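Researcher: Please translate sequence to structure tokens.
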Amino acid sequence: LRTEITALFHDPEVTAADVNTAINHSIRMARERQLYHDGVDETIVWADDTWEYNIPTGFVSVHMLSHEDEQNDYTIYIPDHHWRIVPKSTPVFFFHPDLVDWASTGKKIRVEGMKVQAELSADADILEISDIVIMEWALAQLHAGRGGTSSNLSTWHRQQQLVHFNNAENILANNTFRIPVGTRYVPGRTLT
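Model: Translation complete:
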């Protein structure tokens, strides 16, 4: 993404650090706009007589839990009324002890929901949300940093800032997102 933005911006004075800053600022903007990505986690391991499990990092909502079967496939759907989310300093899943008859010690629980995009710090980091929206916002920010004087070039940068910002907004306006039935929000994580 950084390479594409650098090529589109055409300014030798803009460094990789400038582009990274614009990308990460755009990711923070995405969080504020609640642009999340699909997330799956399979790290929770069921233990006997344990009814609370930390919700994996980054999840802002959960729409389905499933449990491994005997072949280690996630085919056992955990009914919504068997669990709830409890707000704590680290939110947890609470499984109702009287309803849990599907659990097997050592089997994993699969969490499906929406996650927050982490900021990028290395070239190998993966952007899970819309790269075109992040790219357009980042380009708008880079142009904003160049549009401060009254020269023709500054005027052009201010115009380009608006073009790229409006491109991102139009993309967002023309995409619909449907929240799955049964989605539960994780308290304290909606805009972090």
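Researcher: Any highlights?
Model: DSSP finds four helices and eight strands in the chain.
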